[in-house]
Design brief:
This protein is flat. The longest helix has 18 residues, at about 210-225. It contains 16 helices and nine strands. It starts with a helix and ends in a 6-residue tail after the last helix. It has a six-stranded mixed sheet. A three-stranded antiparallel sheet has the order 1-3-2. The chain is of the alpha/beta class.
């Protein structure tokens, strides 16, 4: 079995175990091997994990399949020319048993070697410092990122034998029958629906080094969630929801670029939010969306206007999250006029300049409570 065939079988096995692995995963893994080589099993492990795992619960499954295909000794190189051996131990058993090298378990080796690996460095590298090859890898990772925001319960109800409220309509329908029949009390629970997302991104000149990656992030989110409204702004607000509906992200971003007239211009955050609040809010904030504002906070407008419009937006959404790419940098402090005006009105302030920051954002969306605190 060749290396390519082994990777195809590896991705098929991951898919059969329940991981959401795309059709191009084997090609992505081969590209990673071409980039980092096979000399370090730890680097291969970390790269493969980075490209195929999107949630913490998937890690034990990935570890089990990886060990089955490539073995547990990560201190030496990996060979992908021989058929995979049917190794049936699970990762928990490997961690409990002694390893051949220096008495360390495979789990310990994974922790020891992956911290400074290629994949981990990619997760922590600022978007503004990525090479062209690294940008391609990050785009692949963004496309595979799983979005599962906490659903919201609607007022509508559905039948359920373990419901919390009697369903009188269904119960009365069952009352028709011979006199003396026992009536089974039907119950119902409230339906759930996905929480909508509102994405408002800054595409001004100061954000130029981050705009492309963050718009790829928005495209990946829309592809996963379906229902998401997206706007960009510089000195004026532009809705790009339709443009991001194209399946190919490169074509989608090209259409966005053609639609935005003030790309890489100045920044008037307050005026753009006012435009949203008065022209779009009633149409796109039904259902209490989570609002994500992506901006570095550099603003040439009136900070009073920004503060007022942030407060107005805050009242119409379920949660208001500000993501600042510059917050990833060491020593960052939100000292700009725009950030000082906006921060009192946000629920969460997060970094957004690295892949790991965006993963943190997705994790936050998955754990938000149903009701505002």
């Amino acid at each position: 079995m060749t290396g390519a065939e082994t990777l195809v079988e590896f991705t098929r096995e991951l898919r059969s175990e329940g991981l959401s692995v795309g059709a191009t995963a084997a090609a992505d893994l081969m590209a990673a091997v071409d980039e980092i080589g096979l000399a370090s099993g730890a680097d291969v492990y970390a790269a493969f994990r980075c490209l195929t795992v999107s949630s913490p619960w998937q890690l034990p499954i990935f570890d089990r399949v990886f060990v089955r295909f490539f073995g547990r000794n990560l201190s030496s190189g990996i060979a992908m020319t021989a058929p995979p051996q049917p190794r049936l131990w699970t990762i928990s058993r490997v961690q409990q048993s002694g390893a051949e090298n220096d008495g360390e378990s495979a789990g310990d080796e994974m922790q020891a070697f992956t911290g400074a690996s290629w994949a981990e460095r990619l997760l922590e590298k600022d978007f503004s410092e990525l090479t062209k090859a690294e940008q391609a890898q990050v785009r692949n990772l963004l496309a595979q990122m799983i979005w599962r925001p906490e659903p919201v319960r609607s007022r509508r109800r559905r039948p359920s034998p373990k419901g919390d409220r009697p369903d009188l309509r269904r119960t009365l329908r069952r009352c028709v029958g011979p006199e003396g029949d026992l009536i089974e009390l039907k119950k119902s629970v409230r339906k759930t629906r996905p929480r909508p997302i509102l994405f408002i991104a800054d595409v001004s000149g100061s954000m130029e080094r981050y705009t492309e990656m963050l718009l790829y992030f928005a495209h990946a989110a829309r592809a996963r969630l379906g229902k998401m409204e997206t706007f960009v702004f510089s000195t004026r607000l532009t809705r790009i929801t339709r443009q991001l509906m194209r399946r190919n992200p490169t074509e989608a971003l090209a259409q966005v670029s053609e639609s935005v007239e003030d790309w890489s211009g100045g920044t008037r955050i307050g005026e753009c939010l006012r435009s949203f609040n008065f022209d779009w809010s009633r149409r796109v904030t039904r259902g209490g969306p989570i609002a994500l504002i992506i901006s570095d906070g550099w603003d040439r407008g009136d900070p009073e206007v920004l503060s007022q419009e942030m407060e107005r937006l805050r009242r119409t959404v379920y949660r208001l999250i500000w993501v600042n790419p510059l917050a990833s940098r060491e020593g960052f402090a939100p000292e700009t006029r725009g950030m000082k005006a906006a921060l009192p009105h946000v629920d969460d302030f997060l970094a957004g300049g690295r892949l790991s920051d965006l993963a943190t954002l997705v994790s936050l969306l998955e754990t938000l409570p149903e009701r505002r605190r």
